[in-house]
Amino acid sequence: MELELRHLKTVRAIADAGSLTRAATALGLAQPALSAQLRRIERALGGELFERGRHGVRATALGELVLERARIVLPAVTELQQEAVRFARGRSGREAERLRLGGTHGPLLGALIDLLAAAVPDVHVSTHASWSERELAALLAEGRLDYAVTGACGTAAPPGTEHLAWEEFAVDPVFVMLAGDHPLARTPEVELAKLADEEWACVPGDGCFADCFTAACARAGFAPGRMYETDIASCVHLVQVGRAVGLCRATFPTTPGITTRPLAGTPLLWRHLLGWHPATQRADTAGTVLAQARRAHAAVAARSDTYADWLAGGGGPGGTAPP
């Protein structure tokens, strides 16, 4: 007979109980059956494991050796089994249980995470924020992200279109951020030409937005001055202290000390895009994430009073609000 894990459990149960009678009760066996099983185990191990007496059983030297090993082996096997089950479940449910999102727009990404948590509560969502659209596209192509929320200005093509699927889910005008006491802060909309003498602040990007902005300024009759490309917190500070005016999406959240205003004629547009790799993502999952991205954008837009007023007034090129 070959020694099995159940035999070690039997030996441990006898030692813990201190007698064959009590061990048989704990194991749900008749005492003669347990005695016969112990004799088979002892033959397999080459000697007696317990000395039998009037007051129960006591482990022999061989028994102590076996029990010492059992105290190590049995917990280790139990832990191995539990870990293997967790690993197997994680592997088999990877697509359904994990969603890796990347994004370049903090408020929109946060709103999307919140909606996905409610729509698919069993899915674990992780995030990766980046200012670089190309980096996010590369992470999608490499399989290190499942979906990316990013964008492109005007009619520019999104990055990585060769291998990736991109779906436009919203279009926003680009607004200008002004200090609360800026002379133009109380105007309903700002003509770009009236900002010709300003310095500018904007978050960096590797798309064509800088070129589109320069072209819009040229159409307005001037070349833009110094541009501070920095993180959003620094942009906000530069605008608040009057060092610069900023460029932002219309969904920029209400911020103390800052007023956002639409640019007259909507010279700049930002298209919100959801990207994924069609070879690695299921169509129904992509549909769910896309639907929640649209809802997230609507929720973020509704929190901007300036944007809501602009839309209510029929803002947009030719008097038509963007979708």
Question: What does this protein look like?
Answer:
This protein is an alpha/beta fold and 323 residues long. It is 44% helix and 20% strand. The chain has eleven helices and eleven strands. The chain has helices at 5-17, 20-27, 31-45, 61-92, 94-97, 106-119, 133-141, 209-219, 232-240, 283-302, 305-312, and strands spanning 50-53, 56-59, 98-103, 124-129, 147-153, 165-179, 200-202, 227-229, 245-249, 258-262, 269-276. The strands form two sheets. Strands 3, 4, 5, 6, 7, 8, 9, 10 and 11 form a nine-stranded mixed sheet that branches. It has a two-stranded antiparallel sheet with strand order 1-2. Strand 3, helix 6 and strand 4 form a beta-alpha-beta unit. The longest helix has 32 residues, at 61-92. The chain starts with a helix and ends in an 11-residue tail after the last helix. The model is unreliable at 317-323 (pLDDT under 50).
User: Biggest β-sheet: count, sense, barrel?
Assistant: 9 strands, mixed
Termini Cα gap: 76 Å
* H/E element order: HHHEEHHEHEHEEEHEHEEEHH
Instruction: Quote the beta fraction.
Output: 15-25%
Low-confidence stretches: 317-323
Cα Rg: 34 Å
User: So what's the overall shape?
Assistant: rod-shaped
Into which percent range does the helicity of residues fall? Answer: 40-55%
- By DSSP, the count of extended strands is 11
Mean of residue pLDDT values: 87
Secondary structural class: alpha/beta
Total helical elements? 11
